[in-house]
Write a structure and sequence with these properties.
The chain has 255 residues and is α/β, with parallel strands linked by helices. Helices cover 37% and strands 21% of the residues. It has eight helices and 14 strands. It has helices spanning 22-34, 45-55, 71-80, 96-105, 117-131, 165-176, 184-192, 200-214; strands spanning 3-4, 14-18, 38-42, 59-63, 87-91, 109-112, 138-141, 144-147, 152-154, 160-162, 181-183, 224-227, 231-234, 251-252. The chain has a five-stranded antiparallel sheet, with helices on one face. Strand 9 and strand 10 (160-162) form a beta hairpin.
């Protein structure tokens, strides 16, 4: 058994932002991207319907007062088509009757303008949490089993080791993108965030520690590969026997 157990890997949640005020649309989009979401922007009701059908987002942030087709009608149309994607309405119309109309149209939440950006992001997170599967709590590869709940790993030789918060964070990021190259910048953003600014060398040191736990030979890693000048790639299905070749398994130099 390899890979993240039960729930599987999970790509970034996708959010469709429907807002006809370009400045506000840009602010919302930029902040959602900083939170790790994939964002598509539409500027009117007709464009929103087309993008909603085409992109199949995980969440729709929907302004009410839109050109061509208003937000209430956009939501009604998609609900009539059988779509159950969570919808967060944004509107300057904050009367009780407007909120009721939004909920009757099929909205899951309603936020009145002007609003605090932090509250907006919390509501987005709450709506997505209701509908998306929880992150996987176990990772199995090469005979090792990592438990993200207890911060421990049961190694292939039966030993149990305690992992640090940073080690677990890096391992989760790599596992969610298994087989792909993950840049050092992405690892910094996902694991350290905006509060601290580690150097590339700091990340390299944590990779060394992970290899000491999980690689049969740290000089020729088969699971966590260095892609020189870019970042790292995690290959959970690899085996020591399959890693033989003219290049050392952990090193991928550009042509």
């Amino acid at each position: 058994m390899t890979g993240l157990a039960a729930e599987g890997t999970r790509p970034a949640a996708s959010v469709l932002v429907v807002e006809d005020e370009p400045a506000l649309a840009e602010v919302l989009s930029e902040n959602l991207v900083e939170e790790g979401y994939d964002v598509t922007v539409a500027g009117d009701g007709a464009e929103a319907l087309a993008a909603w059908r085409r992109e199949t987002p995980d969440l729709v942030v929907l302004d009410v007062m839109l050109p061509h087709v208003d937000g209430f009608e956009v939501c009604r149309v998609r609900r009539a088509e059988g779509d159950s994607t969570p919808v967060l309405f944004l509107s300057a119309r904050g009367e009780a009757v407007d909120r009721i109309t939004g909920l009757e149209a099929g909205a899951d939440d309603y936020l009145t303008k002007p609003f605090h950006l932090h509250e907006f992001l919390l509501r987005v997170r709450a709506l997505l949490k209701r509908t998306l599967p929880a992150p996987a709590q176990r990772l199995a590869f090469g005979g090792h089993v990592v438990d993200f709940r207890t911060w421990t790993a049961r190694l292939d030789d039966g030993r149990e080791v305690q992992l640090s918060e940073r080690e677990l964070g890096i391992l989760r990021v790599l596992a969610e993108r298994a087989g792909e190259v993950v840049s050092r910048d992405e690892i910094m953003d996902r694991v350290w965030g905006d509060d601290t600014f580690p150097s590339s060398r700091t990340i390299d040191n944590f990779i060394v520690r992970l290899r000491r736990h999980f690689e049969p030979d740290t000089d020729e890693p088969v699971y966590i590969h260095t892609v020189w000048g870019v970042g790292y790639r995690f290959t959970p299905d690899a085996t020591p026997a399959s890693s033989a070749g003219p290049e050392r398994a952990g090193e991928e130099r550009p042509a």
